[in-house]
């Protein structure tokens, strides 16, 4: 089977949209999905910064949505041809965390999603000349017209929904909203401060507003602060003097919860100082430098932890977020700008420059 895909051939060069070849049909437990739309996440772009860890050439993309065109049957055969699906991260399905409804902490998460996935010999995904492409980024490789995925990655959705917009619910929006609704279980009377008003941060703001949480959003870009305010948060410029003290005043003594999307150690220390006693800080971005905590930041019962994929079971949280969107309480579509697949390099430039919050590619 031949189709178009955006191939990253080296860590330094642009994507090239070219013909690729899928040399196998779905195996048991797999489905072939015709991609309708796929979000661009900063994790896709981070491959360039972590050169050597994720193999190239590869097809990236892990916020896909589309229509099932073929299945391999098996235990997840409830998903059938013609079903509309949102794709999420991969997991083994049988380790202790997977069996405990924590698939984001799968024992094999890194190998399945980030660093090469399952390799086959002979390769079943190649370029037009027969050269192997690194297989199944996040179980998807959905910067393409088709994706062969494990059926457990696919969440069936109502075919009446705008499928081309739903892909980011599988990762970026899932992560921010899940941190609020799952990790923090925040609700009326709680307070939250979000550091970084990108796709993850703004989805956290929307989820917090829907849950009745008093929310403050911190960012250095005025346009993103304006978006956070539109979605229900009190905006606060990152350069504000004595930022933790301002947050404590706005949250009646300190936020119960803080969410950091920046991975910046100075910002993380400010977040900890903005918490009330027993407050919790969640980190969703990967740290690239050592984190030195300032004295006193973890005193009085404060805690810090990393949150992966919003602690979500995608088949539970994605329908919940769609329901909130349908009720007008989670307007994620307002963060999206669409591009043709051939415009992937423009989408990357716009994302890096902060001109767009969530690019979605339309193959």
Automatic annotation (TrEMBL):
Gene3D superfamilies linked: Medium-chain alcohol dehydrogenases, catalytic domain, NAD(P)-binding Rossmann-like Domain
Keyword Zinc: yes
Transmembrane segments: 165-186, 192-218
Record's keyword terms, sorted: Membrane, Metal-binding, Oxidoreductase, Transmembrane, Transmembrane helix, Zinc
InterPro entries: ADH-like_C (IPR013149), ADH-like_N (IPR013154), ER (IPR020843), GroES-like_sf (IPR011032), NAD(P)-bd_dom_sf (IPR036291)
Cofactor: Zn(2+)
Database matches in CDD domains: benzyl_alcohol_DH
Top-level taxon in the UniProt lineage: Bacteria
Entry's family note: Belongs to the zinc-containing alcohol dehydrogenase family.
The protein, known as: NAD(P)-dependent alcohol dehydrogenase
